[in-house]
Each structure stands twice: as structure tokens, then as C-alpha cells.
Specification:
Strand content of chain A: 25-35%
Number of helices of chain B: 16
Order of helices and strands of chain A: EEEEEEHEEEHHHHEEEEEEEEEEE
Distance between the termini of chain B: 33 Å
Helix content of chain B: 25-40%
Largest sheet of chain B: 6 strands, mixed
Strand content of chain B: 15-25%
Structural class of chain B: alpha+beta
Number of strands of chain B: 17
Distance between the termini of chain A: 24 Å
Shape of chain B: globular
Number of strands of chain A: 20
Number of helices of chain A: 5
Helix content of chain A: 10-25%
Oligomer: heterodimer
Strand order of the largest sheet of chain B: 3-2-1-6-7-17
Largest interface: A-B, 73 and 90 residues
Chain lengths: 416, 417
């Protein structure tokens, strides 16, 4: 059974852009193109989002709104483990009678792995179990949205300008200077009005649009930068108080240096992928065993075959081998009758439900090293999916397609 | 920050903005205030234990294609969680990025992921969008190198770039050699061992962590004293008192004692002037004296510092002080002594500033559409336009045949010819 852990013994050749050899367990089959596909030749798509700790499936729109983060679960900012909500009882005055005190539940977040709690950061205990915790906002978000508005206005102007230019008559007799916005004509105009040459803001001098001008203050440069505080050179460092680079980069908006400012973040979601065959755009499934009889012929590789990388000659049985169909019920039925196939005992070693073992003779051609054998496996395949072409009435099965796969067997090093 | 991302207006979906740095990749969506994720630019291959760096310029095309493919696959399906086919892509790049890398990246995006369009945006230019100004002298202190590029009125002045291979990587190397020479390690059984005897070599991520948590940049006076003491030309220079030592745990039982003197002196290599009297501070001044005279005032009063290495404590203060001290030197005095140097503080951390600029640009949907390279154009032409190659035809025929092509300056700003 050690061979289960060595899936690379039997490799199938996938004819895509690159020739990839891969064990069958890692391959997919496209029913439409009738070809083997590997992970490299398919296109991956995002199927659905889910949270890894609460396993809740999120619809894509909600995931987008929440920035791919779960609403309920939090990550510890120190060790990235999932935080759990713990409750304590604290005495608190009753609303109607300040004299009496009663026990109220207060909730805080704690990490079971590194013992971080939300109290370390100064977050007050909340009175609801979930939904009370907020992530801090980026302090610059207002300024950034103003900048985006301003640039969007400039972009609008440029677009209008461009559209107008396209519609305007092209005057071929005018030199280059007057027809482009970088030409001399417009430059002269600008110089007269004394405005700076600019590829971004020069358009503001054209005929006005009746929009409101959005003006922003350009950033002011500072004369002085804050120096390091004096005690920086003499103060000893408390290493656990300083955040590591990884902890900082998990919070790109803030990147705090002190551990006392490391706030927890909502947990990031994961996705389920769906794979599409690139050529036929059909969703793929794993190689599926068919239910009817399959005839298999083993053919030797041709001499001039470029895919042949074998180091041994192989003698294959010329006769056809017949594989019984897969009968799902037979697995549970111990008294299944053996199907009557006439097996040549020289070729067939054993037969069990839909598997068969067969002999091949191998003659190594090299003195030492790995022995690899390659041959072509030809089998018929009946497409059980609904065919594209309309079928005539009364026709039961679909027609069989003969598929040829190039198979490589690595038999291990040569024993002395 | 818009709550409804364009679904109400019926517009297209928000673009994906990626800044592929040599050490870290910043990735997120256009129109947002910060990247969704900042992850190391490396992938874990199933065969090897160590992760492999993605941004390498010396591997052959096939290997690079496969590295980039796996990395971008991880970006889309683990961090962004969207379909690649639906959204335009904005890639923030350095102007000195090799064409081979750019071509392979484009091939991965168009051929494998089938994105609708790509825009390559220069990082120095994008950082200006976060400030609302048109001209600035931008310095990007990254992992492999520090690159200075002036931008005037929205156009990067490409011929005036200045760069030095001093960045995070050099700091790591210097720190590692200092640790190996000077520091001792306590294991559970012994004390005071030298570092190489306990572990073969320290991994770069541990060195990076030591740099980030314990090291800092001293101010000008102290820094110059440290440099003098190191080179000790007079024999009399006295090193200022070092900061306290740090005990850094390597794992449960092994503790590395980091000497205090390492903490403030390792980053001095960025400011030490080498044989050609270059340091990262002189880069700005060298670029400035080459600039046209009229532009110098505006550029010197608008300095923008971006990049992860610029986030070290005390870096910006020291840089400004160095520039002010250096401008009195005879080389620069004539042209620059009367200039005021001022520095901006963008609304984002220095490592995300150019990402944020790309996100602002990516939210302008019409402009993004007209300036990007579409998949059809790429399939037709077979390669992407590059600022150093003049033979690609324009995506739209704005210019009649027979007329002269637009000047190089315009090409630098937009990717259409």
C-alpha cells in the first residue's frame, strides 16, 4: 500500500500548450472536447465566498461590501488565530434604581493561543455578544475621497474635450501645431493668459462647462519633520511591545508600531473555485468512470514518437482487454456473480468488479537508472451528457469515441 | 470612500491595482484608501522549504512566467477574491524595470488570466496624485535600490533619474555581518557563543525583523560622529554613547544579544558617502542641479519620499538635515544654496503611497479605459508599448499618418503613443 503515497508512478500526458505529465488523480476531463485537462490548462473562477471559522456562505454582493471579511469573526492581531468572545459578570447599576447594583454581562474578545485580549488595546467591553465591535476608520479617507472627486472632474473634462475633438472637422491644411493640444496654438493662448503649461489642468481654460468647480487644496509641504524624541537613544526597548513587520502589514491602513495600537480585524474570507475548460468553456468534472463496457487496447509507441521517453522496451498483449462496467451496487453485494469473461491467464492476472490487472513484459534497455515504460492507451468513451446534436428517436446510447492517451509508467530503479 | 462600488451607476467593476515590489507587493482595488493586502513578493514551491522570490530579473522566461503565474494566482484567489476576467488592471512599476520582466508580466496577465486591459503606471508619478500637486522631486527608497525621479507639471523628466543600489537589501547585509562579528548567542546549554557557531546563517526574515524593531536612524550630528568614529581618520573621534542592548529571542531558548552600537549605526551606510561622494541624500541634489533652472525652485520645495525603507524611525528628519547640510558644499553651493527644501506628507504610509496614487487613477474609469492597453490591442500587436521603444503604433489613430509622432514627454505619462 505504499504505492498509494507515490502517485507519480503512472503519468498521463496532457496535450495542452505545454506537455504536462501528471497522475490521473490530478487531472480533469472535458466531456465536450473529449480531452484530458490539467490544472494549468483550465481557467479558474471564483465561485462562492465563505468564512473559514464560522463556515458561513456569503453572497458575492455582501462579500464585496464587507471587503471580503466576515461580519462575526475576528482575527487576533498578534498571532492571526481566531478570536473568541468571552463573557464576564460585572456589577452595574440598574437603570431605574441607581442604588441597587445587579450583575450584567460584559463581553470581550480573547485569543486562546497567545492570550491577547481586547482589553490590552483599550477596547471597552461591549454589552452585546456580537455586532458591537467596530474596526477603526482610516483617518485619511476624507482627504482621499476629495482627491478622487477632483480628479474625476478633470477626467470628465478631458473626456468631453476628446469627444469634441473627435467630432470636430479635421482641417488637413492646418499644420500640426494647431491641431493638437500640445501644439503651439493652444500654448500661445495659455501664455497670454499666464497660466502654467500642464497636461492635467490646462483644460480648465477652455470654454466653461456649467458644472461647479471642485477645488482642492494642493498638499502643503512641511518645512520641518519631527525628529526622534530625545530619549529614543537611551530608552531600552521592550521587545514584546514593538509590533513585528508581519503584524503591521496585516493592517495596511495604520501599520502601528506599538502593540497597544494593534486593533483586531474581521476575518478574511476564502473562496471556492470552479474550473472551466478554456476551449469549450464547460465546467469540468473529475474523470468519471462509465457504466458500460469499455474495451481497452494497448498499443506500443511508434518509433519516431516524440513523446516517447521510455528507457525500456515493452511487449504488450495484442489482444483487446475487456473491462466490465462499473456497477455501483456491486460494492455492497458480496455475493455478486462473477461475470463470465474468457480470460487468457497469461495476460490477465485478476479481475475484480471494474478493475483488471494485466501483464506486460518489460525489457530494460539501459544498464541502470530508472525504468520508464510508455505506451498508448486506447479506450472507448461514451458521452453520457446530453449531446449537442439532437438525437433521433429510439437511439439509446451515444456513439462511442475512441480516445488515445499516452501513458507513462515508472517502474523504479533497476535492481541489481 | 464610496459605499456602493459603481453598481448603482451601472459602471464597470472597480479595477485591480497591483504594486509589485522587489520585497513586498501591495494589492487592492481602485477607489479605496489602502491596499487590501501587503504580502512578501515570494511564493512557496512544493519542492523547496524556502520561498522563492518572484521579482527576479535574471531568470529565463519560462521560469519567470511560472513564478509570476503562481504569484498572481495567489493574489487573485487568496487575497482579492475576484475573477481576473472582469476587471481592468493597473500595475505600478518602476521606470527602470527591465523590458523582459514587463513583457513576461503582460503575457501572464493577458494570456493566462485573460484580463480585459492593463495600464503600466510609473510609481513616482502616481505618488503625486495623492497630494494634488503637479510637480515634485520624488525619491523611492525600496529594497534593491533608491531611485530619484523629478516630475514637473505631471511629466516625469526621465533623463534626470538618479539611483544608487542602497536599500533594504544593503541594510540587511550590513546588519548580518555586524551581528555575526559582534554579537553573542545564549542557548539553553551555553552562554556567550558566537553566532556562526550556533546557527549556520540567519534567515533574511529574522534580519528584517531585527531591523524593523530595533534599528533607527540617528540625527545628523550624532550620525556624523558615528561615521567619524568608524573611519577614525584622526584617531581622536569618540563614538557617541550607544543605545541600550536588546535581547532578541531567536526561538524558545536561543537568545541573541544585539549590541546597542549596532542599532544606530547600521543604517548609516545609506548616508555614508562613498568614494564618489554619493549617498542617498546627494541623489536628490545631483538630480536637482541637472534640472532646468526654472524648475528648481518648485522641485526643491516639493520633496516626496516613498518606499518601505523610508519608514525607518528618524529617516525623513535625517534626510532633510543631510540635504540642508550638503547644499553648502562647493559642488552645489552655486546653484542650490538659496533653495528651501520642504517635504510632503502624503495621506498614506510611504510604502503604500504609490499604490494609493494608482488606486486614485484607477477610479477614473473613462481615462483608465482610454489609456490602458486592451487585450485586443495586445493580441494584435504582440507586445506592449515601452518608453524605450519607439516602434509601436498608437492604440487609437489620433494622429494622421504623415504627421510627426508626439514628443517623448507625452509618452512617458501615458502608455498610448
Amino acid at each position: 500500500m505504499a504505492s498509494l503515497l507515490q502517485p507519480d508512478r503512472v503519468l498521463y500526458l496532457v496535450s495542452g500548450e505545454k506537455k504536462i505529465r501528471s497522475p490521473l488523480s490530478q487531472l480533469y476531463f472535458c466531456r465536450y472536447c473529449s480531452e484530458l485537462r490539467s490544472l494549468e490548462c483550465v481557467s479558474h473562477e471564483v465561485d462562492s465566498h465563505y468564512c473559514p471559522s464560522c463556515l458561513e456562505n456569503m453572497p458575492s454582493a455582501e462579500a464585496k461590501l464587507k471587503k471580503n471579511r466576515c461580519a462575526n469573526c475576528f482575527d487576533c492581531p498578534c498571532c492571526m488565530h481566531t478570536l473568541s468572545t468571552r463573557a464576564t459578570n460585572i456589577p452595574a447599576p440598574l437603570a431605574d434604581d441607581p442604588a441597587k447594583t445587579t450583575m450584567k454581562k460584559a463581553y470581550y474578545l480573547a485569543c486562546g493561543f497567545c492570550r491577547w485580549t481586547s482589553r490590552d488595546v483599550g477596547m471597552a467591553d461591549k454589552s452585546v455578544a456580537s455586532g458591537g465591535w467596530q474596526e477603526p476608520d482610516n483617518p485619511h479617507s476624507l482627504r482621499i475621497s476629495k482627491l478622487i472627486e477632483y480628479y474625476q472632474q478633470l477626467a470628465q473634462r478631458e473626456k468631453v474635450e476628446r469627444d469634441r475633438k473627435k467630432l470636430a472637422r479635421r482641417r488637413a491644411y492646418m499644420p500640426l501645431a494647431f491641431s493638437e493640444k500640445y501644439g503651439l496654438g493652444t500654448r500661445l493662448q495659455r501664455q497670454r493668459s499666464g497660466a502654467p503649461i500642464s497636461s492635467i489642468s490646462g483644460l480648465s481654460l477652455k470654454e466653461n462647462e456649467d458644472q461647479k468647480e471642485i477645488k482642492i487644496e494642493p498638499a502643503q509641504a512641511l518645512e520641518e519633520v519631527e525628529p526622534l524624541p530625545e530619549d529614543y537613544y537611551t530608552r531600552p526597548i521592550n521587545l514584546p511591545e514593538v509590533t513585528t513587520l508581519r503584524q503591521r502589514l496585516l493592517q495596511p491602513d495604520f501599520q502601528p508600531i506599538c502593540a497597544s495600537q494593534l486593533y483586531p480585524r474581521h476575518k478574511h474570507l476564502l473562496i471556492k473555485r470552479s474550473l472551466r475548460c478554456r476551449e469549450s468553456q464547460v465546467l469540468l468534472t473529475l474523470t468519471n468512470p462509465v457504466e458500460n463496457l469499455t474495451h481497452v487496447t494497448l498499443l506500443p509507441c511508434e518509433e519516431g514518437d516524440q513523446d516517447d521517453q521510455s528507457t525500456a522496451k515493452v511487449v504488450l498483449s495484442p489482444k483487446e482487454l475487456v473491462l466490465a462496467g462499473k456497477d455501483a451496487a456491486a460494492e455492497y453485494d458480496e455475493l455478486a456473480e462473477p461475470q463470465d469473461f474468457q480470460d487468457d491467464p497469461d495476460i490477465v492476472a485478476f479481475r475484480k468488479s471494474n478493475k483488471i490487472g494485466f501483464f506486460i513484459k518489460v525489457t530494460p534497455q539501459q544498464e541502470e537508472g530508472e525504468v520508464t515504460v510508455s505506451f498508448k492507451l486506447r479506450h472507448d468513451f461514451r458521452n453520457l451528457a446530453t449531446p449537442i446534436r439532437p438525437m433521433e428517436e429510439g437511439e439509446q446510447g451515444t456513439e462511442a469515441v475512441w480516445l488515445v492517451h499516452h501513458v507513462e509508467l515508472s517502474l523504479g530503479p533497476l535492481a541489481a | 470612500m464610496p459605499l456602493f462600488e459603481g453598481l448603482g451607476t451601472g459602471g464597470e467593476k472597480t479595477a485591480v491595482v497591483v504594486d509589485l515590489g522587489a520585497a513586498y507587493t501591495k494589492c487592492g482595488f481602485a477607489g479605496e484608501c489602502g491596499p487590501r493586502c501587503i504580502i512578501p513578493s515570494e511564493i512557496q514551491r512544493p519542492g523547496s522549504t524556502q520561498p522563492v522570490k518572484v521579482v527576479q530579473y535574471n531568470v529565463n522566461t519560462e521560469e519567470l512566467f511560472s513564478l509570476l503565474k503562481d504569484f498572481i494566482h495567489m493574489l487573485y484567489f487568496r487575497h482579492l477574491l475576484v475573477n481576473p476576467r472582469d476587471r481592468r488592471v493597473v500595475i505600478i512599476e518602476s521606470v527602470l524595470c527591465p523590458s523582459h520582466f514587463r513583457e513576461t508580466l503582460t503575457k501572464v496577465f493577458f494570456r493566462y488570466f485573460e484580463v480585459p486591459s492593463i495600464l503600466f503606471a510609473p510609481s513616482h508619478l502616481m505618488s503625486l496624485l495623492t497630494l494634488g500637486i503637479n510637480s515634485a522631486m520624488v525619491m523611492d527608497c525600496g529594497y534593491t535600490e533608491t531611485l530619484v525621479l523629478p516630475v514637473y507639471e505631471g511629466i516625469p523628466i526621465l533623463s534626470l533619474w538618479e539611483a544608487l543600489p542602497l536599500g533594504g537589501k544593503t541594510i540587511h547585509k550590513e546588519l548580518e555581518s555586524m551581528l555575526v562579528d559582534q554579537c553573542t548567542v545564549d542557548t539553553d546549554s551555553t552562554n556567550g557563543q558566537s553566532l556562526p557557531s550556533v546557527m549556520g546563517s540567519i534567515s533574511e526574515s529574522i534580519i528584517e525583523d531585527i531591523k524593523v524593531r530595533t534599528c533607527f536612524v540617528s540625527d545628523l550630528q550624532r550620525g556624523q560622529n558615528i561615521q567619524k568614529a568608524k573611519f577614525n581618520l584622526d584617531g581622536t573621534a569618540q563614538r557617541p554613547d550607544p543605545p541600550p542592548d536588546v535581547d532578541y529571542p531567536l526561538d524558545g531558548e536561543t537568545i541573541l544579544h544585539i549590541k546597542g552600537s549596532i542599532r544606530d549605526s547600521v543604517i548609516e551606510i545609506l548616508f555614508e558617502q562613498d568614494n564618489e561622494e554619493k549617498s542617498i541624500a546627494t541623489l536628490i541634489l545631483d538630480s536637482l542641479i541637472k534640472c532646468p533652472i526654472d524648475t528648481r525652485k518648485t522641485l526643491s520645495e516639493n520633496l516626496v519620499i516613498i518606499g518601505g525603507t523610508a519608514m525607518l524611525p528618524g529617516f525623513q528628519h535625517r534626510l532633510l538635515a543631510e540635504i540642508r547640510a550638503l547644499k553648502e558644499k562647493p559642488k552645489y553651493k552655486q546653484s542650490l544654496s538659496n533653495k528651501n527644501f520642504r517635504i510632503h506628507s502624503p495621506p498614506a504610509k510611504p510604502n503604500c503611497t504609490s499604490w494609493l496614487g494608482g488606486a486614485i487613477f484607477g477610479s477614473l474609469q473613462d481615462i483608465l479605459g482610454s489609456r490602458s492597453i486592451s487585450r485586443d490591442y495586445y493580441n494584435q500587436i504582440g507586445r506592449i508599448p515601452d518608453w524605450c521603444s519607439l516602434s509601436s503604433p498608437p492604440p487609437e489613430s489620433v494622429y494622421d499618418p504623415g504627421k510627426t509622432p508626439p514628443p517623448l514627454m507625452k509618452r512617458a505619462f501615458s502608455t498610448e503613443k
